[in-house]
Design brief:
Blueprint: H1 10-69, H2 73-90, H3 114-123, H4 131-140, H5 142-147, H6 152-171, H7 186-216, H8 220-229
Length: about 230
């Protein structure tokens, strides 16, 4: 039996051909669109990476340039040495206070307000600062003040007044540096004042005796010259 071939339908063939042509084109367009979008995204990403890399490189270069312009430790040390040398040549360090003398206060206890006390003593400031500081200065100069007095009664009054002000300063609760100034024992201080006074008298008598002995060795002409110059002993 012979199989009959289906009739050749031109419209059906044309439709099949159209479908075959359109379907690949649609797939290719979608694929091309996806590729285009992916390529654009890749391009943007690459551009951003390059931008970030460029910014990082520029910042790193700027930091390196700033570090390159900053002086090194050796250069700073050289500048300091040059400044010291120039100051020495100008004589800025000549005749400084305390030059050639031992440092004061090495054997004493630590004083947290040493710089204030030294300023008061150096500039002879009186009545300034809290009692803790003024009493320290007065305590350091008290012996010299007592030596200017002429009687034990005056010495006793000064010592009693000093002790009273030290005790009052210890009782105050106004803050500030602590009061570490000790009080003075009146009777021992009177004995020390009398001993210093007697020593000064002995020294004065010895000086007067030496002056009289030197005067006795002078000739009459030298004595007249000494009287005219005002160097004769009294």
């Amino acid at each position: 039996m012979v199989r009959r071939r289906p009739p050749n339908d031109a419209r059906l063939s044309a439709a099949r051909y159209r479908v075959q042509q359109v379907a690949p084109v649609g797939d290719d367009s979608e694929s091309d669109e996806t590729s285009a979008n992916g390529g654009a995204a890749a391009s943007v990403g690459a551009h951003g990476d390059r931008a970030r890399t460029g910014l990082g490189t520029a910042g790193q270069q700027a930091g390196e340039e700033a570090d390159a312009g900053a002086p090194t430790m050796e250069q700073r040390a050289a500048v300091v040495e040059i400044a010291i040398t120039q100051a020495m040549r100008r004589g800025d360090f000549d005749d400084l206070p305390g030059a050639g003398k031992p440092l004061a206060g090495l054997g004493s206890t630590y004083d947290p307000d040493w710089w204030i006390r030294q300023k008061i003593e150096r500039e002879r400031l009186t009545g300034l600062g809290p009692p803790a500081l003024t009493l320290r200065t007065e305590h350091a100069e008290l012996d010299a003040r007592l030596d200017t007095l002429g009687s034990e009664h005056e010495v006793r009054e000064v010592l009693l007044d000093f002790n009273r002000r030290v005790i009052e300063a210890r009782r105050q609760l106004l803050g500030g540096p602590p009061v570490v100034t000790p009080t003075r024992d009146v009777d021992p201080e009177l004995e020390a004042w009398s001993a210093r006074r007697a020593a000064r008298r002995r020294e004065a008598e010895l000086a007067r005796a030496r002056a009289e002995e030197e005067w006795s060795r002078l000739t009459r002409r030298e004595r007249r010259a000494a009287r005219r110059n005002g160097t004769a002993p009294r």
